[in-house]
Amino acid sequence: MEALKGVRILDMTHVQAGPTCSQLLAWMGADVIKFEPPQGDATRGQLRDVPNADSLYFTMLNCNKRSITVNMKSNEGKLVFVDLLKTCDIMMENFGPGVLERLGFTWEKIHEINPKIVVGSIKGFGSSGPYSDFKAYENVAQAMGGAMSTTGVPDGPPFVTGAQIGDSGTGLHLAIGLLAALHQANRTGQGQYVEVAMMDGVMNLCRVKFRDHQRLTRQSLAEFSVPTYQNMGDVPRAGNDSGGGQLGNAIHCKPHGANDWLYVVVQEAVWADLAARIGPDVGVPDLATDPRVATIAERRKNQSLVWTLLNKFAEKYTKRELMAILNPIDVPCGPIMSTTDLATDEHVKGRDMWVELDHPQRGKWFNVGMPIKLSASPAKIERSPLLGEHTDDVLKNVLGYDDAKIASLKGAGAFSAPPKKAA
């Protein structure tokens, strides 16, 4: 049996953060009803690569859901919304500040309609504080949550990370909060309001940088390859430094292309074996006992020498060949995997993390798989819904409407946009 079978979610979220959350919950068996305006989620048409088909932006974030279109600007549409609230365990939204309230649905009103429902809300900066009315996007959240100031090289501009920590990261946080609140609602009969701000989520993912921020008030950061000193203030950008107790960096391998790199962590426990393996090949046969790098303290001081020697050794090997040399001596390492590498990797395929699906509009396509593996209820990934594909199904089988009521609501414009006025 699916882990969340029997849980029904009214998903009013759009774009990336909310749909990431609801897709994960759908993969765990929840019945997710994607509640869309008549024009649909904006991402259906964004970055479209197949004419007249839902974009990959949409399909890759909305698998295993049912789609219903409702015009919330009509009184009849609002009545449908209320009936759905009464049948759902969770309602999710990521509208801008005040949007749902202006439609007449405050948290208090929703709680009155269904006291047990859990309401999940994603905001850029939360519903309180001086930033609460600001608009947020992925890179804005990375900028304001601390990620950008600590990413990049010391003498260069700050960088965003390719991982969507602002959007998808916030979706993961929301999933945890919703499941906790649902557990409590099942125990107490009372739902609650669950809010996750993108800025807050990014800060949580940057917690080691806030660790270092406080360490800097007492000491320099010896593991950084860039100079640090007590009370210097901001945690610096440090390129590809590991940022942990062990030294680490990316080593360039042949044929020295954009992704021909191996990330290597030089643990103290493996230094002797690593030095014995590379030393003779780089002209330093006694590297293990060389006073410049013999101890962890000296290696931290002379990191540039360690990386120079490793890069010199790597000149003769591809990233996979170097990995094959280092793995037998227990050196933690991993190749920088490009999108092509990952899309064709046997390990990835074997773990169902690159899954082929079929779509009636766009044909075959691939989706990133379910990262959470449940032994008794593995995820079955199904395609995303067409716009409004399940409207009649939801009205009949969830709400129990008969054909006459559905026809009446359709005639009143409950599920469609009003006709455009003549100019």
Automatic annotation (TrEMBL):
Q: Relate the assembly described in the record.
A: Homodimer.
- What's the encoding gene here? frc
Q: What is this protein called?
A: Formyl-CoA:oxalate CoA-transferase
Residues that span the membrane, as ranges: none
Keywords, comma-separated and alphabetical: Transferase
Superkingdom in the source lineage:
Bacteria
Q: What is the lineage of its organism?
A: Bacteria, Pseudomonadati, Pseudomonadota, Betaproteobacteria, Nitrosomonadales
The protein's matches in HAMAP family, at most eight in alphabetical order, are given as: Formyl_CoA_transfer
State its Enzyme Commission number(s). Answer: 2.8.3.16
- Which positions are catalytic residues? 167 (nucleophile)
